[in-house]
Design goal:
The chain has about 110 residues and is an alpha+beta fold. It has two helices and five strands, in the order E-E-H-E-H-E-E. Helix content is about 25%, strand content about 25%.
Amino acid sequence: MGKRRVPWVRAASPRTLQGSVIVDELDLHGLTVHQAELRLESFLVRVAASEPGGVVRIVTGKGAGSAGSPPIRDMVLDALKSWLAHVVGEWSVDVGAGAYLVRVKGTHRMP
């Protein structure tokens, strides 16, 4: 009898948002809303150009230190739904509710 072959399996990478690997992460802790807006836009546009279709994690925190509604978390949600929707393919709240997972669209470059 021949030897029984066991297939080699690579260690699993964390998979989220329809089974995709997270390609980059942005942490917005400690920033003002204005600073967070600028970094968020720059980050998503950069990733859309370099990793079209990639999934990123945007860490906002849960807003436990904020009085009332968490301002950065609310700003990110508004941005994903409106003024940055042109680079957002899909998004969801990450496990634990302190971050968003976003699949970026590719950017279209003119020749």
